[in-house]
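Holo prediction — flavin-adenine dinucleotide.
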Amino acid sequence: MFLGDIVTEISHDLLQIKGGTQLLIDRLVESIKVPIKCNQPVVAIKVRSNYTEIDYLENGQKQTRRCDYVLCTIPFSVMRKMELEGFDQRKIDSINNTVYCPATKVAFHTKENFWSQQGIKGGASFSGAGVRQTYYPSVKFNPERGSVMLASYTIGDDADRLGNMTEQQRHSYVKEVVSNVHPELQQSGMILESASIAWGNYEWSAGGCTVHWDEENYTASYLEAARPQNTLFFAGEHCSKYPAWLQGSIESALEAIYDIVSHKSASILTTTYSNSVQTIQNRALQVAA
Ligand SMILES: Cc1cc2nc3c(=O)[nH]c(=O)nc-3n(C[C@H](O)[C@H](O)[C@H](O)COP(=O)(O)OP(=O)(O)OC[C@H]3O[C@@H](n4cnc5c(N)ncnc54)[C@H](O)[C@@H]3O)c2cc1C
Protein backbone atom coordinates (compact mmCIF):
# COMPACT_ATOMS: atom_id res chain seq x y z
CA MET A 1 0.00 0.00 0.00
CA PHE A 2 2.88 2.33 0.82
CA LEU A 3 4.42 1.70 -2.60
CA GLY A 4 1.00 2.11 -4.24
CA ASP A 5 0.55 5.52 -2.60
CA ILE A 6 4.01 6.69 -3.60
CA VAL A 7 3.48 5.52 -7.19
CA THR A 8 0.17 7.45 -7.29
CA GLU A 9 1.71 10.55 -5.73
CA ILE A 10 4.46 10.82 -8.34
CA SER A 11 2.45 9.68 -11.36
CA HIS A 12 0.28 11.50 -13.89
CA ASP A 13 -2.77 9.87 -12.21
CA LEU A 14 -2.59 12.49 -9.47
CA LEU A 15 -4.84 15.31 -10.63
CA GLN A 16 -5.48 18.76 -9.26
CA ILE A 17 -8.83 20.50 -9.73
CA LYS A 18 -8.26 23.76 -11.61
CA GLY A 19 -9.77 26.49 -9.48
CA GLY A 20 -9.52 24.56 -6.21
CA THR A 21 -11.01 21.49 -4.54
CA GLN A 22 -13.95 23.59 -3.30
CA LEU A 23 -15.34 23.34 -6.87
CA LEU A 24 -15.96 19.62 -6.31
CA ILE A 25 -18.14 20.43 -3.30
CA ASP A 26 -19.92 23.29 -5.10
CA ARG A 27 -20.86 20.98 -8.00
CA LEU A 28 -22.09 18.24 -5.67
CA VAL A 29 -24.20 20.80 -3.76
CA GLU A 30 -25.71 22.07 -7.05
CA SER A 31 -26.87 18.55 -7.93
CA ILE A 32 -28.68 17.97 -4.62
CA LYS A 33 -32.23 19.23 -4.88
CA VAL A 34 -33.20 19.18 -1.20
CA PRO A 35 -32.00 21.60 1.51
CA ILE A 36 -28.62 20.73 3.02
CA LYS A 37 -28.52 21.50 6.72
CA CYS A 38 -25.17 22.33 8.28
CA ASN A 39 -24.14 22.68 11.92
CA GLN A 40 -26.58 20.01 13.10
CA PRO A 41 -24.30 17.35 14.60
CA VAL A 42 -25.64 13.82 14.82
CA VAL A 43 -25.41 12.55 18.42
CA ALA A 44 -27.13 9.14 18.22
CA ILE A 45 -27.95 6.52 15.57
CA LYS A 46 -30.53 3.83 16.29
CA VAL A 47 -30.99 0.94 13.87
CA ARG A 48 -34.55 -0.43 13.76
CA SER A 49 -35.85 -3.38 11.75
CA ASN A 50 -36.99 -1.34 8.72
CA TYR A 51 -35.95 2.24 9.42
CA THR A 52 -33.15 4.19 11.14
CA GLU A 53 -33.58 6.85 13.79
CA ILE A 54 -31.17 9.78 14.01
CA ASP A 55 -30.80 12.14 16.97
CA TYR A 56 -29.16 15.46 16.11
CA LEU A 57 -28.73 18.89 17.66
CA GLU A 58 -30.48 21.93 16.19
CA ASN A 59 -29.55 25.16 18.01
CA GLY A 60 -28.39 22.97 20.88
CA GLN A 61 -31.77 21.17 21.12
CA LYS A 62 -31.98 17.42 20.51
CA GLN A 63 -34.25 16.47 17.61
CA THR A 64 -35.14 13.00 16.34
CA ARG A 65 -35.73 12.01 12.76
CA ARG A 66 -37.05 8.70 11.45
CA CYS A 67 -35.49 7.81 8.09
CA ASP A 68 -36.28 5.05 5.58
CA TYR A 69 -32.61 4.97 4.54
CA VAL A 70 -29.47 6.59 5.93
CA LEU A 71 -26.06 6.82 4.25
CA CYS A 72 -23.63 7.55 7.08
CA THR A 73 -20.24 9.03 6.13
CA ILE A 74 -19.23 10.09 9.65
CA PRO A 75 -15.72 8.78 10.43
CA PHE A 76 -15.72 5.82 12.82
CA SER A 77 -13.31 7.73 15.10
CA VAL A 78 -16.22 10.15 15.73
CA MET A 79 -19.02 7.54 15.65
CA ARG A 80 -17.41 5.49 18.43
CA LYS A 81 -18.16 8.37 20.85
CA MET A 82 -21.89 8.50 19.94
CA GLU A 83 -24.88 6.67 21.32
CA LEU A 84 -25.42 3.67 19.02
CA GLU A 85 -28.32 1.23 19.28
CA GLY A 86 -29.34 -1.86 17.30
CA PHE A 87 -25.88 -2.50 15.77
CA ASP A 88 -24.54 -6.08 15.72
CA GLN A 89 -21.35 -6.84 17.69
CA ARG A 90 -19.11 -7.26 14.61
CA LYS A 91 -20.09 -3.79 13.45
CA ILE A 92 -19.49 -2.25 16.89
CA ASP A 93 -16.04 -3.92 16.90
CA SER A 94 -15.30 -2.44 13.47
CA ILE A 95 -16.40 1.05 14.62
CA ASN A 96 -14.23 0.80 17.75
CA ASN A 97 -11.18 -0.88 16.21
CA THR A 98 -10.71 0.80 12.81
CA VAL A 99 -7.23 2.33 13.06
CA TYR A 100 -6.87 6.07 12.41
CA CYS A 101 -3.60 7.83 11.71
CA PRO A 102 -3.12 11.51 12.71
CA ALA A 103 -1.91 14.24 10.33
CA THR A 104 -0.90 17.89 10.74
CA LYS A 105 -0.26 20.78 8.37
CA VAL A 106 1.38 24.11 9.18
CA ALA A 107 1.23 26.86 6.55
CA PHE A 108 3.00 30.23 6.44
CA HIS A 109 1.66 33.24 4.55
CA THR A 110 4.91 34.93 3.54
CA LYS A 111 5.69 38.45 2.36
CA GLU A 112 7.27 37.04 -0.81
CA ASN A 113 8.13 33.73 -2.48
CA PHE A 114 11.85 34.00 -1.60
CA TRP A 115 12.39 30.33 -2.54
CA SER A 116 11.88 31.13 -6.25
CA GLN A 117 15.27 32.93 -6.16
CA GLN A 118 16.77 29.49 -5.44
CA GLY A 119 15.08 28.10 -8.56
CA ILE A 120 12.25 26.37 -6.64
CA LYS A 121 9.00 26.48 -8.63
CA GLY A 122 6.99 23.81 -6.77
CA GLY A 123 7.70 20.39 -5.32
CA ALA A 124 8.87 19.70 -1.80
CA SER A 125 11.83 19.63 0.62
CA PHE A 126 12.31 17.27 3.55
CA SER A 127 13.51 18.33 7.01
CA GLY A 128 14.32 16.33 10.13
CA ALA A 129 13.22 16.89 13.73
CA GLY A 130 9.68 15.69 13.01
CA VAL A 131 8.77 18.50 10.60
CA ARG A 132 9.05 16.29 7.50
CA GLN A 133 7.66 17.70 4.27
CA THR A 134 7.67 21.33 3.10
CA TYR A 135 5.67 22.02 -0.08
CA TYR A 136 6.00 25.05 -2.36
CA PRO A 137 3.07 26.36 -4.41
CA SER A 138 3.02 25.33 -8.06
CA VAL A 139 0.60 28.14 -8.94
CA LYS A 140 1.36 31.87 -9.23
CA PHE A 141 0.02 34.30 -6.60
CA ASN A 142 -0.53 38.01 -6.96
CA PRO A 143 2.93 39.25 -5.73
CA GLU A 144 1.24 42.14 -3.87
CA ARG A 145 -0.44 39.61 -1.59
CA GLY A 146 2.74 37.61 -0.90
CA SER A 147 2.82 33.83 -1.14
CA VAL A 148 2.15 30.68 0.85
CA MET A 149 4.29 27.70 1.78
CA LEU A 150 3.07 24.52 3.39
CA ALA A 151 5.93 24.57 5.88
CA SER A 152 5.21 21.18 7.44
CA TYR A 153 3.06 18.17 6.52
CA THR A 154 3.32 15.21 8.87
CA ILE A 155 1.49 11.95 9.46
CA GLY A 156 1.79 9.31 12.20
CA ASP A 157 3.93 9.82 15.32
CA ASP A 158 5.37 13.15 14.10
CA ALA A 159 1.81 14.45 13.69
CA ASP A 160 0.96 13.39 17.25
CA ARG A 161 3.96 15.28 18.58
CA LEU A 162 3.06 18.51 16.71
CA GLY A 163 -0.63 17.95 17.54
CA ASN A 164 0.14 17.92 21.27
CA MET A 165 1.71 21.40 21.10
CA THR A 166 -0.32 24.60 21.37
CA GLU A 167 -0.77 26.38 18.02
CA GLN A 168 1.77 29.04 19.03
CA GLN A 169 4.38 26.41 20.02
CA ARG A 170 3.75 24.44 16.83
CA HIS A 171 4.20 27.49 14.57
CA SER A 172 7.41 28.60 16.36
CA TYR A 173 8.84 25.07 16.30
CA VAL A 174 8.20 24.59 12.58
CA LYS A 175 9.62 28.07 11.84
CA GLU A 176 12.84 27.20 13.71
CA VAL A 177 13.33 23.85 11.96
CA VAL A 178 12.45 25.03 8.41
CA SER A 179 14.72 28.07 8.91
CA ASN A 180 17.67 25.66 8.74
CA VAL A 181 16.78 25.21 5.06
CA HIS A 182 15.28 28.70 4.52
CA PRO A 183 16.91 31.28 6.86
CA GLU A 184 14.78 33.98 5.13
CA LEU A 185 11.91 32.90 7.42
CA GLN A 186 13.77 34.57 10.30
CA GLN A 187 13.70 38.01 8.60
CA SER A 188 11.43 40.45 10.38
CA GLY A 189 7.98 40.62 8.70
CA MET A 190 8.66 37.66 6.39
CA ILE A 191 5.88 35.52 7.93
CA LEU A 192 2.66 37.53 7.74
CA GLU A 193 0.40 34.83 9.21
CA SER A 194 0.58 31.20 10.29
CA ALA A 195 -2.17 28.62 10.23
CA SER A 196 -2.27 24.97 11.18
CA ILE A 197 -4.56 22.05 11.73
CA ALA A 198 -4.02 18.83 13.65
CA TRP A 199 -6.58 16.37 12.32
CA GLY A 200 -5.93 13.97 15.22
CA ASN A 201 -7.49 16.55 17.59
CA TYR A 202 -10.11 17.90 15.18
CA GLU A 203 -13.55 17.23 16.63
CA TRP A 204 -15.21 16.19 13.33
CA SER A 205 -12.56 13.74 12.07
CA ALA A 206 -10.60 12.68 15.20
CA GLY A 207 -7.84 11.44 12.88
CA GLY A 208 -6.30 12.09 9.48
CA CYS A 209 -7.19 8.88 7.68
CA THR A 210 -7.65 5.15 8.26
CA VAL A 211 -4.92 2.55 7.95
CA HIS A 212 -5.72 -0.99 6.86
CA TRP A 213 -2.87 -2.39 8.96
CA ASP A 214 -2.88 -3.54 12.55
CA GLU A 215 0.47 -4.02 14.40
CA GLU A 216 1.79 -6.42 11.73
CA ASN A 217 -0.77 -7.46 9.16
CA TYR A 218 -2.79 -6.04 6.32
CA THR A 219 -6.49 -6.32 7.19
CA ALA A 220 -9.33 -5.80 4.73
CA SER A 221 -11.14 -3.93 7.53
CA TYR A 222 -12.88 -1.65 5.01
CA LEU A 223 -15.18 -4.52 3.96
CA GLU A 224 -16.60 -4.75 7.50
CA ALA A 225 -16.69 -0.94 7.77
CA ALA A 226 -18.86 -0.79 4.64
CA ARG A 227 -21.30 -3.55 5.76
CA PRO A 228 -24.81 -2.07 6.30
CA GLN A 229 -27.04 -2.47 9.35
CA ASN A 230 -30.61 -2.95 8.03
CA THR A 231 -31.37 0.41 6.33
CA LEU A 232 -28.26 2.17 7.65
CA PHE A 233 -25.54 2.21 4.95
CA PHE A 234 -21.94 3.39 5.21
CA ALA A 235 -19.51 5.23 2.93
CA GLY A 236 -16.29 7.23 3.27
CA GLU A 237 -12.58 6.69 2.94
CA HIS A 238 -12.72 4.23 5.86
CA CYS A 239 -15.09 2.02 3.79
CA SER A 240 -12.84 1.95 0.75
CA LYS A 241 -9.85 -0.01 -0.46
CA TYR A 242 -8.24 3.38 -1.23
CA PRO A 243 -8.14 5.00 2.21
CA ALA A 244 -6.84 8.57 2.54
CA TRP A 245 -7.89 9.48 -1.01
CA LEU A 246 -10.95 11.46 -2.13
CA GLN A 247 -11.28 8.87 -4.90
CA GLY A 248 -11.79 6.17 -2.23
CA SER A 249 -14.57 8.07 -0.49
CA ILE A 250 -16.33 8.82 -3.80
CA GLU A 251 -16.14 5.19 -4.99
CA SER A 252 -17.43 3.85 -1.67
CA ALA A 253 -20.35 6.32 -1.81
CA LEU A 254 -21.27 5.13 -5.32
CA GLU A 255 -21.20 1.50 -4.14
CA ALA A 256 -23.39 2.34 -1.12
CA ILE A 257 -25.92 4.16 -3.33
CA TYR A 258 -26.08 1.12 -5.62
CA ASP A 259 -26.71 -1.06 -2.54
CA ILE A 260 -29.48 1.27 -1.28
CA VAL A 261 -31.21 1.28 -4.68
CA SER A 262 -30.97 -2.54 -4.91
CA HIS A 263 -32.27 -2.90 -1.34
CA LYS A 264 -35.14 -0.53 -2.07
CA SER A 265 -36.23 -2.36 -5.25
CA ALA A 266 -35.88 -5.70 -3.44
CA SER A 267 -38.13 -4.39 -0.62
CA ILE A 268 -40.69 -3.10 -3.15
CA LEU A 269 -40.61 -6.48 -4.95
CA THR A 270 -41.02 -8.34 -1.65
CA THR A 271 -43.91 -6.08 -0.62
CA THR A 272 -45.58 -6.44 -4.01
CA TYR A 273 -45.04 -10.20 -3.88
CA SER A 274 -46.49 -10.53 -0.36
CA ASN A 275 -49.42 -8.26 -1.34
CA SER A 276 -50.11 -10.54 -4.35
CA VAL A 277 -49.91 -13.65 -2.15
CA GLN A 278 -52.33 -12.01 0.28
CA THR A 279 -54.77 -11.16 -2.58
CA ILE A 280 -54.62 -14.74 -3.91
CA GLN A 281 -55.17 -16.16 -0.41
CA ASN A 282 -58.15 -13.82 0.15
CA ARG A 283 -59.63 -14.81 -3.23
CA ALA A 284 -59.11 -18.50 -2.38
CA LEU A 285 -60.87 -18.01 0.96
CA GLN A 286 -63.77 -16.20 -0.78
CA VAL A 287 -64.06 -18.99 -3.37
CA ALA A 288 -63.95 -21.65 -0.64
CA ALA A 289 -66.62 -19.80 1.31
C1 LIG B 1 -3.67 16.13 5.63
C2 LIG B 1 -4.48 15.41 4.59
C3 LIG B 1 -4.13 15.52 3.26
C4 LIG B 1 -4.86 14.86 2.28
N1 LIG B 1 -4.53 15.01 0.96
C5 LIG B 1 -5.27 14.43 0.00
C6 LIG B 1 -4.97 14.60 -1.40
O1 LIG B 1 -4.04 15.32 -1.74
N2 LIG B 1 -5.75 13.96 -2.30
C7 LIG B 1 -6.81 13.18 -1.94
O2 LIG B 1 -7.50 12.63 -2.82
N3 LIG B 1 -7.13 13.00 -0.63
C8 LIG B 1 -6.38 13.61 0.33
N4 LIG B 1 -6.69 13.42 1.66
C9 LIG B 1 -7.77 12.47 2.01
C10 LIG B 1 -9.16 13.00 1.82
O3 LIG B 1 -9.24 14.30 2.36
C11 LIG B 1 -10.12 12.05 2.54
O4 LIG B 1 -9.92 10.72 2.10
C12 LIG B 1 -11.58 12.41 2.29
O5 LIG B 1 -11.85 13.75 2.65
C13 LIG B 1 -12.46 11.50 3.11
O6 LIG B 1 -13.81 11.81 2.84
P1 LIG B 1 -14.93 11.26 3.78
O7 LIG B 1 -16.21 11.76 3.23
O8 LIG B 1 -14.73 9.82 4.04
O9 LIG B 1 -14.64 11.95 5.21
P2 LIG B 1 -14.60 13.48 5.62
O10 LIG B 1 -14.17 14.33 4.47
O11 LIG B 1 -13.82 13.52 6.90
O12 LIG B 1 -16.15 13.80 5.88
C14 LIG B 1 -16.79 13.40 7.04
C15 LIG B 1 -17.82 14.46 7.37
O13 LIG B 1 -18.56 14.06 8.53
C16 LIG B 1 -18.82 15.22 9.27
N5 LIG B 1 -19.13 14.83 10.65
C17 LIG B 1 -18.30 14.35 11.60
N6 LIG B 1 -18.95 14.12 12.74
C18 LIG B 1 -20.25 14.45 12.52
C19 LIG B 1 -21.43 14.42 13.33
N7 LIG B 1 -21.42 14.01 14.60
N8 LIG B 1 -22.59 14.83 12.76
C20 LIG B 1 -22.63 15.26 11.47
N9 LIG B 1 -21.56 15.31 10.67
C21 LIG B 1 -20.38 14.90 11.19
C22 LIG B 1 -17.55 16.03 9.18
O14 LIG B 1 -17.80 17.38 9.51
C23 LIG B 1 -17.19 15.82 7.72
O15 LIG B 1 -17.78 16.80 6.89
C24 LIG B 1 -5.99 14.07 2.66
C25 LIG B 1 -6.35 13.97 4.01
C26 LIG B 1 -5.61 14.64 4.97
C27 LIG B 1 -6.03 14.54 6.43
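READOUT: The chain has a mean pLDDT of 90.
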